[in-house]
Automatic annotation (TrEMBL):
Residues 1-26 are annotated as: Disordered. It comes from Loktanella salsilacus. Keywords: Membrane, Transmembrane, Transmembrane helix. Pfam families: OpgC_C. The chain crosses the membrane at residues 67-89, 109-131, 143-162, 168-186, 193-213, 219-237, 249-267, 306-327, 339-361, 367-384. This is OpgC protein.
């Protein structure tokens, strides 16, 4: 009997190609830089300590928040793009791809509420114990006492945000939007990027933002503008999953971005140059240039901040020794903290607030600003180690459970 002709191998969907592949070694740069960003956030959230001088915000315009958002976008692109690609290839339901992101956003929401309640409790308790009524007015805390009903409504809808506990709300919103951004990013990455840039520009120029409640103004990190850096991270993650770069290496572009980083550093630290550049930006503003182009506004993710973090990310991604450093055993603590990002972020936020209170209560104890950030980082590292040990123990415990007879 003659054999039937062999069937041609099925062609992979363009959206599927390279995204759904066997697991590959985890890029050490992602966890290492995310861990570094979280460590810097903890340090910067204790204002007045000397370690602030060596965080990323002192080398240019952006700070650890921008680094955290772009690294989180990259990690999300790597982790969640396969689920979206399966749906685009007709191999699974859309919900299977969306659900992990929305479950994660719910987890972040719960953490945000818990952190807000802890912050209110910490400063309220400190106001009574240390006889400092000012603790009830710091960081937008006065609203919970002066307008309690509205604040209790604003808290669960993320409209009432406490200072230094206001990073996660925007990340929650962006993670809810992430499935749609990934669908667009897998199908038409450059069109997606163009749309994201347009939204960033218009929202910044028109000062669109989500309003806070109670009170006036908008969210501290405006999701309508910060979506751009998160979207860029997602697109990088999608390409990284395919072992590709979003922006290929170019000697000319590398030189340009490195030159910009040097210029930004000089702008920050050479008074004469800084005065000239700030004056020129003010002149452009008076001529009608949008505020998000000619300012350093963090809420709107102004252009100098955006360009700085993108240039920094590009330069670091082009240097092979950066990967080797991030993979080195001495960088293991950073990778560990980055791998347990939510735990470290939440615990670091609480420890930073405790550090603020202690430094205000004991301003004459000169060693506190030196020691408290270090203790905070060490506690976060220990917590990450405990969590990692618990995670490793779970599979072993499951393997020991006898199968039902």
């Amino acid at each position: 009997m003659a054999r039937s002709p062999a069937r041609p191998k099925a062609q992979l969907s363009p959206a599927r190609q390279g995204l759904i592949a066997p697991s590959r070694p985890r890029d050490p740069r992602i966890d290492a830089f995310r861990g570094l960003a979280l460590m810097m956030i903890l340090i910067d959230h204790m204002p007045g300590n000397p370690w602030e001088e060596i965080t990323v915000r002192n080398i240019g315009f952006s700070d650890a928040a921008e680094a955290f958002f772009i690294m989180s976008g990259i990690a999300a692109g790597i982790a969640y793009s396969p689920g979206i690609a399966r749906w685009l290839a007709g191999e699974s339901r859309l919900w299977d791809g969306m659900a992990p992101m929305w479950r994660r956003s719910w987890t972040l929401y719960v953490v945000q509420i818990v952190l807000s309640v802890i912050a209110i409790g910490l400063f309220s308790w400190s106001a009574g114990v240390f006889y400092r009524s000012a603790f009830r007015e710091m960081h937008n805390l006065a609203a919970i006492y002066d307008n309690t009903g509205a604040a209790l409504i604003g808290l669960p809808i993320l409209g009432y945000q406490i200072g230094y506990v206001n990073i996660l709300p925007s990340y929650i919103v962006l993670l809810i939007a992430a499935p749609f951004l990934l669908i667009a990013g897998v199908r038409a990455p450059w069109l997606t990027l163009a749309g994201s840039v347009a939204l960033w520009f218009v929202a910044g120029a028109m000062r669109w933002n989500i309003p806070i409640y109670p009170g006036n103004g908008g969210w501290f990190l405006n999701p309508l503008t910060w979506q751009l850096i998160f979207t860029i991270g997602l697109l990088i993650g999608i390409r990284h999953r395919r072992d590709e770069r979003l922006v290929p290496y170019s000697k000319a572009l590398f030189a340009l971005t490195l030159g910009f980083l040097i210029f930004a550093f000089a702008w920050r630290h050479v008074p004469e140059l800084g005065a000239i550049m700030n004056h020129k930006m003010a002149q452009l503003g008076r001529l009608g240039a949008p505020g998000n182009i000619v300012s350093h506004n963090k809420t709107m993710l102004a252009l100098p901040r955006l360009l700085h973090i993108l240039a920094l990310a590009y330069v670091l991604s082009c240097l092979p020794f950066v990967t080797r450093i991030c993979a080195h055993r001495y960088a293991a603590p950073l990778r560990l903290m980055g791998g347990h990002g939510l735990l470290v972020f939440g615990l670091g936020t609480i420890l930073a607030l405790v550090g603020q209170i202690l430094m205000i209560v004991e301003p004459r104890v000169t060693w506190l600003p030196w020691v408290l950030p270090v203790i905070g980082v060490l506690i976060c590292y220990i917590a990450a180690r405990v969590a990692d040990s618990a995670r490793s123990a779970k599979p072993a415990a499951k393997a020991k459970v006898p199968a039902p007879q």
